[in-house]
Structures are given as structure tokens and as C-alpha cells.
Design brief:
Layout (H helix, E strand, L loop, with lengths): L1 E2 L10 E6 L7 H12 L4 E6 L5 H10 L2 E6 L4 H7 L2 E2 L1 H6 L4 E4 L5 E4 L2 H12 L8 E5 L3 H11 L5 E5 L3 H10 L6 E3 L12 E4 L22 E4 L8 H8 L5 E2 L2 H16 L8 H6 L2
Parallel strand pairs: 2-3, 2-4, 5-7, 8-9, 8-11, 9-10, 11-12, 12-13
Antiparallel strand pairs: 1-3, 4-6, 6-7
Helix pairs in contact: 1-9, 5-6, 5-9
This protein binds 2'-monophosphoadenosine-5'-diphosphate.
Length: 282
């Protein structure tokens, strides 16, 4: 476990976010604002933990009073596999971004990413997913983390497209039978126009673009890139240029998944209204 230089772990009821890299994480700021608005004392750190070291990092954190962790890349699958109790959301995702530690030492895992995405789209962007044609790009951990949440919204069709076709098929097999789905080969176009396109590939992290026919964007209600950055991603810029009505990055999703984590630990769901604006202006 490597503690960021300014962090003082060792206080009771401490929480943290772990990942590698972690220096860029906005989670401590978000949780500090939640605690402030809720009038609760809540300590939240960021700790770099290398892949393969999560179990020992948890044991060390529990020893100094740690009660729970958010988990980010590349540790979400590891968090899931070492947990003792798993929520349905974590099981559906095969990964956990939330852990809480019981007094008996048991580790409970949950996944709040799907909640974060759906809440951001439906409550913050005011768009329903129910009855819509939704195109999900990517079939890695990020896509799997939100798959069940999207399916639970009853889209009229869920289109799955991924460079490696077999991984899109694997995702399709995880969907409930009641969810209509279509596998769209990478770079090809479905005959059904999507209402909402969600980019869950890791392409935006490098500024690369998914292979797709650009005429698809103009008729969408929303193009959503699950990564967040201070400036619009290349994918968002492309969608805007092509006439997409609404384009969003994943900052709202980050805030909403954090709010759900805060609720699971503290019992109250904090208000999130102005948090994305505050993050963008700092
Ligand atoms: P994450 O946890 O961010 O989802 P991941 O599990 O490694 O990371 O998944 C990355 C996703 O981005 C995958 O869907 C991957 O496609 P493959 O399944 O074919 O690997 C996609 N991706 C990454 N680089 C890509 C590229 N150059 N072109 C197309 N898709 C890419």
C-alpha cells in the first residue's frame, strides 16, 4: 500500500478510494462536499494500491480503523473476488467499486457504477432510457459494470458493439432474457437508429475514436462518454460536430456513484445538485 504524501491514515471510521494511478482521483473532494452538506464527520483518503495487493491493503486499512473503500481501475475485479458478501449489482458486474468492512472482518462488495450512469442520464440530463434504443460501445469492465443497470431500465433494444466480437457476445449472454438485444459488429451500422449512444470503451483515455458511421450521431437524443475530463473528449467533439443534440462526459456518473456509496456507508443519500459545477470550476 502506498499512501499519497498528504494523507494521514490512522483515524477511526476512515474511508478511502484505492486504485493505480490514484493521484488524479476526485473522490476525496466529492465525499468531503457530501459530508459538509450532510453535517457529518467523514474521513476519506486516496491510496495507491498496485494490482495484486488489494487484500493486504484492506487488512492494513482495517487495522487503522478503515470502514470501507471505493475501488477503481485496475482493482474492481480483484475487489469482487476477495469479498465475502456480494450484492446482486456486484454479481451482475463481476466487479466491485464499493467495499464495506464489518466489525467481524467480513468484506461486503457492491457496484454503484450502473446506478451512477442511470441516475446521471435520467435525473441530471432528464432523459428516460425506458423504451429507447441504446447502443453500448465496448465490452470490458466498464461496460459490464453498467450493463445490468441499463437492462433494468427496459430499453426497447440494447445494441452491443465491441472490437472483439466474442466479448460483445459474452455481454449479451449476461443480459436477462427479457432484454431485447442486438450485437453490432465493430465499425458496422445497425439498421435501427440508436436514441442513446454510450461509450464504455477505453478509447477516450487516449483521445482515439471508435470506428463508426458518423451519420448516426445527428439523430440521437444523447451521446454519453463514460470517461470524464476537463475538456470534451474527442468522441464528444465528434458527436457535437455531427449534430448530436446532447453530449455528456461521465463526471455526473462519477458523482452519482459516489453519492450511492456515501448512502451505503452513512445511511443518507447526499444532494448532488451543484457538485459537478463545483468540480468543473476548481
Ligand atoms: P475498462 O475496465 O476501462 O472497460 P477493459 O476491460 O480493458 O477496460 O476494456 C476496454 C474496452 O475498450 C474494450 O471494450 C476494448 O475492446 P476489446 O474488447 O476489443 O479489447 C475497448 N478498446 C480498447 N482499445 C480499443 C481500440 N483501439 N479500438 C477499439 N476498442 C478498443
Amino acid at each position: 500500500m502506498v499512501t499519497e504524501p498528504s494523507v494521514k491514515v490512522g483515524l477511526p471510521n476512515a474511508y478511502c478510494v484505492v486504485g493505480d494511478p490514484i493521484a488524479h482521483s476526485l473522490s476525496p473532494k466529492i465525499h468531503a462536499w457530501f459530508a459538509e452538506s450532510e453535517g457529518q464527520a467523514f474521513l476519506y483518503h486516496k491510496i495507491r494500491v498496485a494490482k495484486g495487493s488489494l487484500k493486504s491493503a484492506i487488512e492494513e486499512f482495517m487495522r487503522v480503523g478503515g470502514k470501507g473503500m471505493n475501488v477503481t481501475v485496475p482493482l474492481k475485479e480483484e475487489a469482487y473476488s476477495i469479498s465475502d458478501v456480494r450484492s446482486e449489482r456486484a454479481i451482475a458486474a463481476g466487479a466491485a467499486n464499493f467495499l464495506s468492512f464489518g466489525d467481524n472482518g467480513k468484506i461486503t462488495a457492491d457496484n454503484t457504477d450502473g446506478y451512477g450512469l442511470i441516475t446521471d442520464i435520467s435525473r441530471n440530463l432528464h432523459l428516460a432510457l425506458s423504451g429507447k434504443v441504446i447502443c453500448l460501445l465496448g465490452a470490458g469492465g466498464a461496460a459490464r459494470g453498467v450493463l445490468a443497470g441499463i437492462a433494468a431500465q427496459s430499453p426497447s433494444l440494447l445494441q452491443l458493439s465491441n472490437r472483439t466480437l466474442s466479448k460483445a457476445e459474452d455481454l449479451s449472454n449476461l443480459l436477462p432474457k427479457s432484454c431485447p438485444r442486438e450485437i453490432v459488429p465493430w465499425g458496422q451500422m445497425s439498421t435501427t437508429q440508436p436514441d442513446i449512444i454510450i461509450n464504455a470503451t477505453s478509447l477516450s483515455l487516449t483521445g482515439d475514436l471508435p470506428k463508426m458511421n458518423n451519420s448516426v450521431f445527428a439523430l440521437t437524443e444523447l451521446v454519453y462518454d463514460m470517461v470524464y475530463s476537463s475538456n470534451p473528449t474527442s468522441f464528444m467533439k465528434l458527436a457535437s460536430r455531427q449534430g448530436a443534440k446532447n453530449v455528456s462526459d461521465g463526471l455526473g456518473m462519477l458523482v452519482e456513484q459516489a453519492a450511492e456509496s456515501y448512502r451505503l456507508w452513512n445511511g443518507t443519500l447526499p444532494r448532488t445538485d451543484n457538485i459537478t459545477d463545483r468540480l468543473r470550476s476548481t
